[in-house]
Amino acid sequence: MKPALKAFKQGKAFKVISGLTNFDKDNVVDVCWAAGAGGATHVDIAAKPELVTAARKVCTCHICVSAIDPKLFIPCVEAGADMLELGNFDSFYDQGMTFSAEDVLKMTHETREIFPDMPLSVTVPHTLNLPDQIGLAQQLEAAGVDIIQTEGKVGARTKGTGDIQESVEIAAPTLAAAYALSRAVDIPVMCASGLNDVTVPMALSAGASGVGIGSMISKLGNRQQMLLATHALADAIGTQEAEEEKVVDTAEIDTVRAMNAAGTFAHW
Question: 215-243, pLDDT tens digit by residue?
Fold first, then answer.
C-alpha cells in the first residue's frame, strides 16, 4: 500500500487544506507547520513546486497538491509531492465557474495518463445532484482514482444562528454526499468543505474514511492559533498526537483540550 493512502484505509485521515488558489507562501508554511505539529496526516496545498519545497521543510505530513490543470502536477511531483488532488472546486464557484461530470472525468483521465500510479484524489462537485454525484464517483473509481472527496459548503443553507445548529447546517451537504458516496464505491471517501470539530465525527460516522479541513485553520491569524485549532480537530477525529509536545508546553496543551471539550472551536 502506498504510504499516502494508509490513513484512509485505517479510516483516520486528517487533511489540512491551505487552498487550491492560495499561493501566499508564508500562510502556506504556517498551515503546514500547524498541520504537522497538531496531528494531521496530510496537507493539501496549491500545485506550485516552491510551495511543496517549503512545506517539506516544516512538516512530515503527506503532501497533496491540488489543481484543475493536470500539467501543473508535473513539477510538483518532481519537487516531492506525495499525492494529487483534482479540486476541490469551491473557490471557483464565486468566479462563475462550474464543473460537469464530463469535465471532472476528462481531468482525471489526463492525470492518469501522466501519473498512472500516483495516489490520486478527485472531488465530486456538489453542484451535481446526488444521483449524478454517485454516478460520477463510480466512474472515477473505474478510472483508477484512489480517493473520492466531497464538498458542499457553498450550497449550505443556514439560519445564521451562529451556534452548533449552524455548524450542522453548513456541513449538511457534504455529510449527505459522504454518506451516499461511501456506500456507492469501494474506495475511501474524504469528507471536506464546511466541517469543524463538531461535525468531523459526524463525517466519520457517515462513512467517510477521512476529513479535509480548510478555512477553520488557514484563515486564523497566526501559526499558534492554527496549531490550537488543528489539535482540537485531531482530538475530535481521534488521530494520534503527533509533535505538539515539542512545540507547545504542557499548560498550553491542557488549555487546548479544555477549549475543545467546551466546544470553543465549534463556531469557527
Answer: 899 999 899 999 999 998 998 888 755 44
Question: Tens of pLDDT along 78-130?
Answer: 999 999 999 989 889 888 999 999 999 999 999 999 999 999 999 999 999 99
- Residue in the block written with cell 499516502: 4
> For residues 207 and 148, is the Cβ–Cβ distance under 8 A?
no
**Domain of 246: which CATH number?**
3.20.20.70
User: What DSSP character marks residue 89?
Assistant: -
Alpha-carbon distance of 209 to 182, in angstroms, equals: 9
- Where do the H-state alpha helices sit in 64-209? 73-79, 90-93, 101-114, 130-142, 164-182, 200-206
Among the listed residues 113, 152, 109, 107, the one whose alpha carbon sits nearest the alpha carbon of residue 129: 152
Domain that holds residue 47: 3-267
Which residues, listed in sequence order, are joined to residue 65 by a DSSP beta bridge?
45, 84
Which is it for the CA torsion 209, 202, 55, 69, positive or negative? positive
Per the structure, how many domains does the chain have?
A: 1
Residues 6 or more apart whose Cβ sits within 8 Å of residue 126: 133, 150, 151, 152, 154, 155, 173, 174, 177, 193
With contact defined as beta carbons under 8 Å apart, do 61 and 217 qualify? no
CB 170 within 8 A of CB 235: no
Helix axes 164-182, 130-142, angle to 10 degrees: 50
Total Cβ atoms within 10 A of residue 116: 9
Axis-axis angle for helices 101-114, 130-142 (nearest 10): 20
Give every CB contact of residue 94 below 8 A, 6+ residues apart in sequence. none
Residues facing residue 62 across a β-bridge: 42
81 within 8 A of 57, measured Cβ to Cβ: no
